[in-house]
Amino acid sequence: MYWFKTLTRFTTRSTSKFTPTLFTLQHIHHFTTTTTTDATAPPVSGLGPTKKPDKPRVVVLGSGWAGCRLMKGLDTSLYDVVCVSPRNHMVFTPLLASTCVGTLEFRSVAEPIGRIQPAISHEPGSFFFLANCKGLDVKNHEVHCQTITEGVQTLQPWDFKIAYDKLVIASGAEASTFGINGVKEHAIFLREVYHAQEIRRKLLLNLMLSDVPGVTDEEKRRLLHCVVVGGGPTGVEFSGELSDFIMKDVRQRYSHVKDYIHVTLIEANDILSSFDDRLRIYATNQLTKSGVRLVRGTVKDVQPKKIVLSDGTDVPYGLLVWSTGVGPSTFVRNIDLPKAPSGRIGIDEWLRVPSASDIFAIGDCSGYLESTGKSTLPALAQVAEREGKYLAELLNKIGKAGGGYANSSGDVELGDPFVYKHLGSMATVGSYKALVDLRQSKESKGLALAGFTSWFIWRSAYLTRVVSWRNRFYVAINWLTTVVFGRDISRI
Q1: Does residue 444 register a pLDDT over 90?
Q2: In a 10 Å sphere around its CB, with 0-12 CB exposed, 13-18 middle and 19+ buried, how is residue 207 labelled?
Q3: d(Cα 128, Cα 341) in Å, to the nearest integer?
């Protein structure tokens, strides 16, 4: 039982030669440099350099697909693991759209870092820090961090440093706005759990406000107009989930306004452009049949209650979800490391940053340098996961060869470089229908399915890919509960 395991672990650690006091003296060093020129400013604390016989330290920036798969695969008998991230969990993004309308609970798609890599919870030299990386000192092998304390009125963010032997940058990317005015202020992205929570609260609030006496028909239509910008897998899946929610739950529980609510999906080109043409046509027909209005156009301006398209058309909205892909984050743009043509951190075939010793980059924040002759890989979960798995095996190999410490892996044979093979794409379009495209590329031949069978494959595949058995159980129960009782419409 969990309480017994916890008691046993606490007893074991308490009777060992390790004590908190010894750890503080041995591992936590105070740097004499300060973040300001004020001589009276307090020194910046942090984790100092490792020394034998301590294990070398791998610092991971980020807790997304790439970083978490890396931490899961690292051999903690070889390395101490330190994770720095603004969230203490991994988000299973393929199922995030389902949480917005109550098909799944939010905790079903969030996996705590401590369960992915247990060493972070109990090993003396491994930690998780809720913080952002603010800069790198490549010469001294240090990362400069600042704590996350938003919403806590009594705390001020403070700075600290972490010395690393190996640094893995897996900080992901941020949603692309293409410089369009008003997107960040008025649109909601769908990349984090708090985004899904915000979408859900806004959607249910608009449903209830539209039912209040005195609200005009025009205002009802605006409040209940859900606009999704971006016709990629995320935008299409959210539109499908939303249409299901409207047809199966809203029409039953909000009968007074059921004729006012509708969904519009705006895309500059074809939806699901990476999928087989036959599947794209099927998705278009299925979404239209479910009541989703497809509009081909480009957004020019976003205002508080409407968006303006490039042809001058005004589109009023009550809920605006922005899903137009991702680009380099502010941290990646500002960091002093070589960049790939896409603006990501430049890497070689072994996922290393060539000009910086002991630094690797994986996931959406990284891209191949021009000198490699390889094109940048797409920003997909399966790409990030496969890179994380490969790099964990590479670092384990380096550690076993005695190259785990800083500046000591120069003579280690790295082996085969990373090679990515696309396993296919999947997307649900609502009404128990989905698309499964198992081709390696758009030009390749392969299996392409659509319909109920694809929906069953989609759900089965993602259920097996959920990280822990705990969350697999949660997801399965949530799906069953939704089928039997419908979606929860509580605004909490």
Answers
A1: no
A2: buried
A3: 32
